[in-house]
Specification:
Elements lengths: L8 E6 L2 H12 L4 E2 L12 E9 L6 E11 L13 E5 L3 H10 L5 E7 L2 E7 L5 E7 L11
Parallel strand pairs: 1-4, 5-8
Antiparallel strand pairs: 2-3, 3-4, 6-7, 7-8
């Protein structure tokens, strides 16, 4: 059956997309570009994006996806910044990222989940979005999690 093959992107709406993109740039080094980089009609201060590179498991080909985009909200956001989604970002060293974020006043939410394949920690961005930081750990050759 045809189905999802991965994540194509994360798209957030924000009342202040420039400030939210700046927060991700400052605290997580995302490296957003304004919408003009895509040739879009949106004003630069209303839309930001970052395209990540991934490698296709089967072909080994490097692709330009997924995209992480922040756009100007066109309507009211959920009350109290309660959102029904989580942004998952891969990091090289989750402990170092958390230590850096703590010095900037960003607190970890809950406990870190550590398992054979990785470490997961959560924070919130200034708009209240839940952000999961994921550090992949190499699986042992005999791991039941290998596919």
């Amino acid at each position: 059956m045809p189905g999802a093959q991965g994540i194509a992107g994360v798209f957030l709406d924000s009342e202040d997309p420039a400030a939210l993109a700046a927060w991700y740039d400052e605290h997580l080094d995302v490296g957003f570009t304004g919408a003009e980089g895509l040739g879009l009609d949106a004003p630069e201060e209303e839309s930001f994006f970052r395209v990540f590179h991934t490698r296709d498991v089967e072909s080994g080909e490097v692709r330009e996806n997924p995209v992480f985009a922040i756009n100007k909200a066109t309507g009211p956001l959920a009350p109290g910044n309660q959102r029904g989604h989580v942004i998952g970002l891969r990091v090289d060293d989750v402990d170092a990222v958390l230590q850096y974020l703590a010095t900037a006043g960003v607190e970890q939410e809950g406990k870190m989940l550590v398992w054979e394949g990785g470490k997961h920690a959560r924070i919130r961005d200034p708009d209240g979005n839940l952000v999961e930081l994921y550090e992949e750990l190499p699986l042992a050759p005999d791991s039941p999690y290998r596919t």
